Amino acid sequence: MSKPSQFDNYPVQMTLPSSAGEWVATDTGDDSWMPLYRGASPIRCYSDNDHEIQLYLGLYPVQRQGEELINDLNRISDNKIWRIRYQKAKLYNIGGHQVPEQLLEKNDGSQHLVWYWYHVAGQNTVNKYQAKALQVLGLLKGKRQSSVVAIPTKLNDEPEYTRKILGQFVEEMDFSIDRIIDGKI
Q1: What does the domain layout of the chain look like in residue ranges?
Q2: In principle, which of 19, 135, 153, 183 could form an S-S bond with 53, CB 3.0–4.6 Å?
Q3: pTM of the model
């Protein structure tokens, strides 16, 4: 456990992919969505010419007081500009793992669907209690890094169509995301 991690030094410099499949990085959109995960960032927008999706990778190389992945102050929405509409996140199965979905609404009535999950000690989870347990396991295995992955996009008139677009993005970007958060890029 005393072996230093490659991620022990702050700030973490992380390069998000410039493209994956049909998705190409664009300038960050101006819809003002940003999750609240203290001590974590960055965010990047992607487009396939018809749709825009944001990718937020909140990486925690090591846990520090006030900068923990699982913290009561962390949330997928700021609840000021964007408010949560589902009382409890809905779960969807994509690519062999589950993702929670949350519907966010802006003061002007625009809506986003957001899929998100935690990646701790090399494993994905949607449960914050399991994430905490994985952090302990990660300490024992020398895998202390953890992260939150959040992927929002504008809600289309047809929620199933929006979910299909999110699913395609995750499928094409999944390998790159895993490599980044496991520290292999």
Answers
A1: 28-181
A2: 153
A3: 0.84
Cα 17 to Cα 11: distance, rounded to the nearest angstrom: 19
CA 141 – CA 139 distance, rounded (Å): 5
CB atoms within 10 A of CB 98: 16
Taking a C-beta distance cutoff of 8 angstroms, is the pair 95, 174 a contact? yes
